[in-house]
């Protein structure tokens, strides 16, 4: 290939693709390039939760692997642990850092999808359209706005992993294996197992498709070889992340994802089904894939101040209330917005299904339908529970609606397959016209039905809204001392009027978007028709299709993440309040804080400055969750005392917050006079509410042997925390006799070790979640240290696999260059 040919065929299209992706990112996130920043809820929560980890690293150069600032203390495996041996991930970081986030998310999602499309044989110019359709997926903007960073990176790398799998099974298996190992390593390293899990299911569907083809051709050996290479790539990818995977797997059984010990053993296989399926995408809500406002959009979106609801409430002097009522009427507890796939993209996807060969369309349709059913969750509970039993590990995940991420990948892929068939011009005219008619009829017809008659298909939440609004008006009248209006039917009348207006305005919103979607379907179908008639060429068709998909999606994206979401540039941090300053003035180490000005067990901002009794994490320790459910949520003083809760942060009269000191906290450690044995975990937690925890330690029956028949008393004994770090605590004590001490630190036997004067010492769990020890008489020092077990071994495996992947990629690159020099086809 000479230089001119190379520039024309490869370099210029690649440069054009990268430029277009960057321009799309600039348009979508213009404020970022003006120096503004995007406030993100989950980012702030994450930054708050890791402050003590980062402070410890900065002060000591050591990774603590444990945080003491959230939920009393917990392993940092699912928060922030440094794994130096993850070479693939670390080498990728400067590359993906070329374009800063959030614009970088969109840019690299497009790049990843574009590269995948090249791997499966799509022309680089056609691939630009499909890459934009993927990168501009509305769901991406929703999770970027929420700050779901790990989820977004997993979605960036997922197409590249799928492209490598396709190449391994259908193309150059060695290069495909190398790409799969590299991309899967990055995918796993992104640390969002649920997204990875869904795309592994998609990979399984691809493999089944190849297995069916092998069965029909009665040729199994090539598939077995390719499967072996793909499996080896997967093993290397997992091994290159062995350390985090190992510790996560070890830790999961102790978290809420492993179930509560208070449940029967048969029930402790995963998350509670109701909890796991709380965010389920209902069958009706699935229309938002085509019509974004079918369900009213975001749950934080109110009705227009000059709309029907405002007019209906104006008769009662409540016009302003309209903007506070939810336009969203779906079944999810709340949502940032719909998973809109794009009307133009869906039309082209249907066309792609009709034009693609069987080795493409059936597995793509099958996995799309399967993921849609998974997303329905509790709406088809029989199917969902069956999947919980059949799919290994599936019951560890919540928010089943997330399964739609695979559909938002298959739709742009099918759309691109349609454009590629048109680009090649190898579809018989009659078949093309028939496919065009069917695709336009299905996508456009559905939009037309919703636009013209959608109001007849649903009540748009009218019945549910009537009950809610009536109850709210009754409460409003009662609180205002106007009970007669609550009793004489006025509240009911107002509730029904408001509900009718809400349903009507929701229907209007849906119709407007249905007409909008129909317009984009007709425009895309018109472009294809012009191509069929020979009025435009393939380049113009591809450009028109890409532009339509991009404009369609971007306009909806900016509804839910508009430019005014950004603010002045400043680091995300939690500002000090007067209450914080009061607490920070107390220099005694180790005590904890309960912040009652926030939802304490769903908010991590307290952890920015203090050791918090609460926090924000989806995989907190299961025993601590039991404590929250049974005692902490109700503010049980005895349990707060045993957690050494010295301060409460409460609202101050007139605004602001203030710190209230609790004088009853047990302290960092204390001696007990007696031990109460408990046969079961349920007995343990019951005893916490009945015992005087300052005098009595609640201990599981299996641990009593470490204590009995020794006495527990230590009259005149003293014990104090002399030094505190997240992963190290030092206590000095004096006891006139052997005694049992309880330490107000969370028990976790997979890494914490104790010594007395430097000699290893036994410990046991006390008070359901804390640590206990039998201490000898005299004056001594107790030290607790945390270190992830088998650290050198896990890091060694991670390093070896990482080097193997990098060596394989280097060998593949050298092989491709040699083949190019010899004039052979490249491995892609």
Describe the fold and architecture.
By secondary structure, the chain is α+β, with helices and mostly antiparallel strands. Helices cover 53% and strands 10% of the residues. The chain has 4 domains: 31-82 and 574-667, no CATH class; 83-252 and 791-828, no CATH class; 263-565, no CATH class; 669-786, no CATH class. It has 28 helices and 16 strands. The strands form 5 sheets. Strands 9-10-16-12-13 form a 5-stranded antiparallel sheet, with no helix packed on it. The chain has a 4-stranded antiparallel sheet with strand order 6-11-15-14, with no helix packed on it. Mean pLDDT is 90; it is low at 824-828.
The overall number of domains is 4
Span from first to last CA?
Answer: 16 Å
Strand count, sense and barrel status of the largest sheet are:
5 strands, antiparallel
Query: Which secondary-structure class do the elements indicate?
Result: alpha+beta
How would you name the oligomeric state of the polypeptide chains in this document? single chain
Uncertain residue ranges: 824-828
Sequence of strands across the biggest β-sheet:
9-10-16-12-13
Q: Tell me what portion of residues adopts beta-strand conformation.
A: 5-15%
The helix fraction, in percent, is 40-55%
Count of individual beta strands: 16
Shape: globular
Mean pLDDT figure: 90
Per DSSP, the total helix count is 28
């Amino acid at each position: 290939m000479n230089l001119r040919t190379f520039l024309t065929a490869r370099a210029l299209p690649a440069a054009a693709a990268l430029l277009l992706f960057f321009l799309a990112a600039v348009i979508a996130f213009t404020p970022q390039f003006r120096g503004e920043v995007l406030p993100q809820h989950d980012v702030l929560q994450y930054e708050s939760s890791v402050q003590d980890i980062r402070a410890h690293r900065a002060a000591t150069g050591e990774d603590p692997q444990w945080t003491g600032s959230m939920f009393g203390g917990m392993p940092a495996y699912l928060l922030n642990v440094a794994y130096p041996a993850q070479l693939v991930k670390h080498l990728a970081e400067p590359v993906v850092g070329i374009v800063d986030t959030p614009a970088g998310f969109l840019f690299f999602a497009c790049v990843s999808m574009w590269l995948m499309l090249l791997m499966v044989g799509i022309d680089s110019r056609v691939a630009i359209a499909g890459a934009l359709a993927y990168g501009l997926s509305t769901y991406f903007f929703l999770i970027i706005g929420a700050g779901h960073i790990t989820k977004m990176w997993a979605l960036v790398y997922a197409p590249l992993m799928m492209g490598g799998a396709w190449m391994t099974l259908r193309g150059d298996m060695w290069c495909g294996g190398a790409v799969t190992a590299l991309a899967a390593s990055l995918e796993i390293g992104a640390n969002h197992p649920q997204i990875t899990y869904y795309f592994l299911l998609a990979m399984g569907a691809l493999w089944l498709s190849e297995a069916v083809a092998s069965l029909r051709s009665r040729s199994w050996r090539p598939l077995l070889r390719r499967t072996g290479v793909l499996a080896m790539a997967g093993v290397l990818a997992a091994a290159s992340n062995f350390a985090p995977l190992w510790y996560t797997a070890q830790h999961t059984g102790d978290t809420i994802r492993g179930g509560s010990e208070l449940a029967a053993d048969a029930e402790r296989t995963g998350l509670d089904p109701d909890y796991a399926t709380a965010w389920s995408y209902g069958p009706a809500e699935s229309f938002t894939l085509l019509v974004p406002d079918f369900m009213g959009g975001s749950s934080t979106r109110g009705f227009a101040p000059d709309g029907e609801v405002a007019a209906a409430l104006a008769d009662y002097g409540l016009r302003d209330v309209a903007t506070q009522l939810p336009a969203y009427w779906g079944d999810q507890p709340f949502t940032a917005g719909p998973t809109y796939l794009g009307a133009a993209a869906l039309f082209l996807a249907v066309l792609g299904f009709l034009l693609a060969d069987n080795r493409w369309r059936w597995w793509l349709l099958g996995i799309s339908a399967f993921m849609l059913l998974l997303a329905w969750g509790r709406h088809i509970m029989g199917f969902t529970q069956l999947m919980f039993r059949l799919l290994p590990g599936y019951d560890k995940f919540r928010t089943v609606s997330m399964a739609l991420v695979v559909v938002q990948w298959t739709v742009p892929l099918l759309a691109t397959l349609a454009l590629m068939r048109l680009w090649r011009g190898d579809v018989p005219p009659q078949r093309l016209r028939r496919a065009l008619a069917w695709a336009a009829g299905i996508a456009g017809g559905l939009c037309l039905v919703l636009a013209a008659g959608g109001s007849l298909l649903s009540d748009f939440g009218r019945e549910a809204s009537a009950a809610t609004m009536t109850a709210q008006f009754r409460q409003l009248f009662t609180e205002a001392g106007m009970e007669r209006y609550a009793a004489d039917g006025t509240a009911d009348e107002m509730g029904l009027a408001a509900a009718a207006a809400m349903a009507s305005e929701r229907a209007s919103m849906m119709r407007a978007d249905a007409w909008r979607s129909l317009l984009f379907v007709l425009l895309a179908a018109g472009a294809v028709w012009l191509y069929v008639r020979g009025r435009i060429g393939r380049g113009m068709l591809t450009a028109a299709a890409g532009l339509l998909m991009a404009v369609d999606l971007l306009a909806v994206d900016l509804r839910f993440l508009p430019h005014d979401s950004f603010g002045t540039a400043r680091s995300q941090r939690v500002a000090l309040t007067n209450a914080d300053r009061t607490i920070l003035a107390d220099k005694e180490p180790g005590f904890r804080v309960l912040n009652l000005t926030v939802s304490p067990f769903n908010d991590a901002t307290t952890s920015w400055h203090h050791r918090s009794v609460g926090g924000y994490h989806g995989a907190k320790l299961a025993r601590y969750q039991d404590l929250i459910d049974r005692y902490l949520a109700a503010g049980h003083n005895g349990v707060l005392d045993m957690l050494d809760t010295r301060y409460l942060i409460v609202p101050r009269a007139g605004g602001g917050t203030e710190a209230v000191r609790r004088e009853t906290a047990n302290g960092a450690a204390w001696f007990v006079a007696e031990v109460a044995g408990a046969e079961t975990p349920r007995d343990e937690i019951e005893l916490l509410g009945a015992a005087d925890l300052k005098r009595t330690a609640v201990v599981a029956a299996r641990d009593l042997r470490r204590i009995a028949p020794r006495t527990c008393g230590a009259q005149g004994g003293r014990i104090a925390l002399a030094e505190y770090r997240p992963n190290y605590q030092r206590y000095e004590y004096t006891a006139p006799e052997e005694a049992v001490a309880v330490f107000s630190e969370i028990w976790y036997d997979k890494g914490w070790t104790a010594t007395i004067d430097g000699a290893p010492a036994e410990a046991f769990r006390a008070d359901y979640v804390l640590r206990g020890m039998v201490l000898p008489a005299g004056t001594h020092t107790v030290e607790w240290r945390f270190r992830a077990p088998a650290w050198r071994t896990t890091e060694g495996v991670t390093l070896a696999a990482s080097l193997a992947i990098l060596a394989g990629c280097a060998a593949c690159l050298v092989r491709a260059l040699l083949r190019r020099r010899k004039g052979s086809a490249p491995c892609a």
